[in-house]
Design goal:
The protein is of the alpha/beta class and 264 residues long. Helix content is 36%, strand content 23%. It has a single domain, classed as P-loop containing nucleotide triphosphate hydrolases (Rossmann fold, 3-Layer(aba) Sandwich). The protein contains ten helices and ten strands. It is globular.
């Protein structure tokens, strides 16, 4: 469904500040597959997401989505097929707009229409049904400004917005890292529910080894712009956080996160 073939990205090439962010990286993600990505800061994870979403153009290589070459397709065109949720809950919603208006923007974006202040009654019912499934009580607060919501509630709205138009692929960029443990647990449960309900292909970056063990079908580790190992199948099902931490530390050169951060 998603395929990256020998994708490389170099920033500031030919200068003392040259950074080889991705080095001939190849990866395939099947339809409906949930892949978890781990790696230290500077491993290339964000650049990996940026080339998939179209925020960064690769220097070489090829990216295809659902059989279509999107290597140089603009980010705004890819956004119809690729949903993305960032670490900061504030990045996915518009303050000053209500929950209803934010969801309407997401729905209108999927239809390719312009902004409309009015909300169709059918959409209103759809929004209520989507939020009711999350058991957060937000379906009764459609007229509340999203700026007044907690971080977990706002991230829940962002997730619903990102999946409202049923994208082919969902990118989750450490989307629970800024939340308290209780909110993070709720958002993870929502993530699983939405992924299964919409049969989404999901790629999730996390620093939490516990999340990497609990979620998804496959775990990959990045280091210095490359995928250095991946775990799937029976080995993945028996995976423990300590196993990942041991592998993680064996690759690092003093820049690793603490064990408490990795267990997250």
């Amino acid at each position: 469904m998603l395929s990256l073939d020998d994708v490389s990205v170099t920033f500031n090439a030919g200068t003392p500040n040259e950074v080889r962010a991705l080095q001939a990286l190849s990866l395939s993600v099947a339809e409906g597959e949930f892949v978890t990505v781990i790696g230290s800061n500077g491993a290339g994870k964000s650049t990996f997401f940026n080339v998939i979403s179209g925020a960064v153009e690769p220097n070489s290589g090829r990216i295809t989505l659902d059989g279509r070459d999107i290597t140089y397709t603009p980010e705004f065109r890819r956004s119809h097929d690729i949903g993305r949720v960032f670490q900061d809950p504030r990045l996915g919603t518009c303050p000053g707009l209500t929950i209803r208006e934010n969801l309407s923007l997401a729905a209108i974006h999927g239809r390719g229409a312009g902004f409309r202040r009015d909300v169709k009654q059918a959409d209103d019912a759809r929004f209520f049904a989507q939020l009711e499934r999350q058991h957060l009580g937000l379906e009764h607060r459609l007229d509340a400004d999203v700026a007044l919501l907690s971080g977990g509630q706002r991230q829940a709205i962002t997730l619903v917005m990102a999946t409202l138009t049923q994208p082919k692929l969902l990118l989750l960029d450490e989307h629970t890292a800024a939340l308290d443990p209780n909110a993070a647990e709720q958002v993870i449960a929502l993530t699983q529910d939405l992924a299964e309900a919409n049969d989404l292909s999901v790629v999730m970056i996390t620093h939490s080894m516990q999340q990497a063990c609990d979620l998804g079908d496959r775990v990959i580790m990045m280091n210095r712009g490359q995928i250095v190992f991946e775990i799937a199948g029976e080995e993945r099902r028996n995976l423990k956080p300590a196993d990942l931490i041991d592998r993680f530390h064996s690759l690092q050169d003093g820049t690793e996160l603490s064990d408490a951060q990795l267990l997250g």
